[in-house]
Amino acid sequence: MINETTILKDITGLLSSLIAIPSTYPPGNTSEICSYIRKWYEQLGYRCHTLSCEEGIHNIVASIGSDSPNLVFNCHVDTVDAGPISKWKSDPFTASSRNEAIYGLGANNCKGSTAVHMWVGQEIARLGGPENGQITFTFTGDEERLGPNGMKYLRDTASITPDILLLGGPTENQLITEERGVLWIRIYIYGKTAHAGNPNSGDNAICRAARLINHLNATMEPILSNRMSGEKHSTMNIGRINGGQNVNVVPGSCTLDIDRRLLPNEDLQQAYQEICQTLSTSGEPQNSYETKLVTGTNGFSAAKNGPGVSALVDSIKNRTKKCPEFVDAVGVSDGRYFAEKNIEIINFGPGNGSTSHAANEFVEVDQLVDAAIILCDSIKRITGTKSN
Q1: Residue 377: is it exposed, middle or buried by C-beta count within 10 angstroms (0-12/13-18/19+)?
Q2: How far is CA 363 from CA 20, 113, 199, 325, in A?
Q3: CA-CA distance, 37 to 28, in Å (whole number)?
Q4: 84, 7 in Cβ contact below 8 A?
């Protein structure tokens, strides 16, 4: 049995090294941090691959064992920008220990879980690897911009084919087994440019946008307010409007960007068509606007009695002597790219999501140790290890 003090020392050492390697978006370059991670897994005997379809955005796949079940772990290793340095109490690229926590950019989202997964990978190798099946650790970029060159690329190229996908998002070591889908829609709105001194000779695209917004809100909000799954709501947000060229010109064009969050039982294409149908009843001429589905994925819901969830529940109980909570996600994770694959998708990791993307980001050290012990125990329950 490894001493918990040793576990903490090992994980905080890894986390300190990870925080010291910038991987901020923009530009989202993950080549250096992925090189560091790959060397770690290679010296442990894992089969390692660096995969990339965009310069600077690297992804690591490290596997041990073979066949099924294929238990895949994932952490994204890109971070947001540090923001104003004056708001940090310490250097964001130097791990700082205080108040029983580690502070630094990415400590909470998602380098804390990355350090935990690296330590777990070491422990599984020490135990001889899985007794049954395969364990794969993945570390990806392009998450912070919801881009296609990280986890989506690994899915599209079949570089990973999980039976169980366990993401290391900050959940305070509780469980997220359901996640809403996300749909981004852009509406291109057209009018007629004219001099502001004679606005009636033009057709104001921004005014048309306002009418479309009012119609969308008046029509969709009563419908969406009645769509719920537990505490999760189906939502729509008008996130951005862009139009006009100068204050003394009647704008001839405008764009609207809409964010729709979908319950796990809602379908992406149907939700898009619902928006289009609603717009068609606005009274605006059909040729005065057009819509585009920018990006989107369906939501997912994992059964609470599946092998992955069951193993985590039992391991959490064993470690904490408490039943875990099933919590709701406000945002979306890279698990959404596997929503159509009929697999277990679970978010579990140290850290509080509410402290992500903020100055003085931190992760509690007790949560790091607990997460490591829980994950190792869960692996033993799912695949076993050759040496117990």
Answers
A1: middle
A2: 16, 10, 56, 19
A3: 16
A4: no
Whose tokens are 């070591």? That residue is: 173
Token digits for 304?
Answer: 């609470």
CA separation for the pair 149, 136 (Å, rounded): 19
Q: What are phi and psi of 199, to 5 degrees?
A: -65, -25
- Supply the pLDDT for residue 155: 97
Tell me the pTM.
0.91
DSSP code string of 236-259: EEEEEEEE-S-TTEE--EEEEEEE
**Among candidate residues 302, 304, 306, 317, the one with its CA nearest the CA of residue 377:** 317
Which residues lie across from 73 on neighbouring strands? 137, 166
CA distance 267 to 275: 13
Burial class (CB in 10 A: 0-12, 13-18, 19+), 18: buried
325 secondary structure, DSSP code = P
Residue 345's nearest CA partner among 167, 113, 182, 147 is: 167
- DSSP characters over 4-70: HHHHHHHHHHHHHHHHTS--EETTT--HHHHHHHHHHHHTTT-EEEEEEEETTEEEEEEEEE-SSSE
Q: Domains in the chain and their CATH numbers?
A: 4-179+299-382 (3.40.630.10), 182-297 (3.30.70.360)
- Sequence-distant (≥ 6) Cβ neighbours of residue 227 within 8 angstroms: 233, 234, 263, 266
Q: How far apart are CA 381 and CA 39, in angstroms?
A: 28
Distance (Å, rounded) from C-alpha 83 to C-alpha 62?
A: 32
Looking at residue 149, its amino acid is N
Mean pLDDT (whole number) for 285-307: 94
Beta-bridge mates of residue 352: 171
pLDDT tens profile 106-160: 999 999 999 999 999 999 999 999 999 999 999 999 999 889 999 999 999 999 9
For residues 43-51, average pLDDT: 98
Take residue 13 and report the two structure tokens written for it: 């050492």
Tell the burial category of 207 from Cβ atoms under 10 Å away from its Cβ (0-12, 13-18, 19+).
Answer: middle
Are 138 and 129 in contact by the 8 Å Cβ rule? The answer is no
